[in-house]
Specification:
This protein has helices at 10-30, 34-38, 40-60. The chain has 62 residues and is an all-alpha fold.
Length: 62
């Protein structure tokens, strides 16, 4: 790898993108009403923040 290259960081973006797609598929399949389908995309985009919050809350006992 060339000095100053940032190609190594692209793998994380791909994993995050696959996670968003997987979360969207999950939320679409779990949805029952119109608003469940509408909110599937925003939920898929923010799920990493929710997971991190819950992990830190359980770790620190909040």
């Amino acid at each position: 790898m060339a000095k100053g290259s940032d190609a190594g960081g692209a793998g994380g973006g791909a994993v995050y993108g696959l996670g968003i797609i997987g979360a969207a598929v999950y939320y679409f399949s779990a949805g029952e009403g119109f608003w469940d389908f509408v909110l599937a995309i925003p939920k898929a985009l923010v799920w990493p923040a929710i997971v991190a919050y819950e992990l830190l809350k359980s770790f620190y006992g909040g």
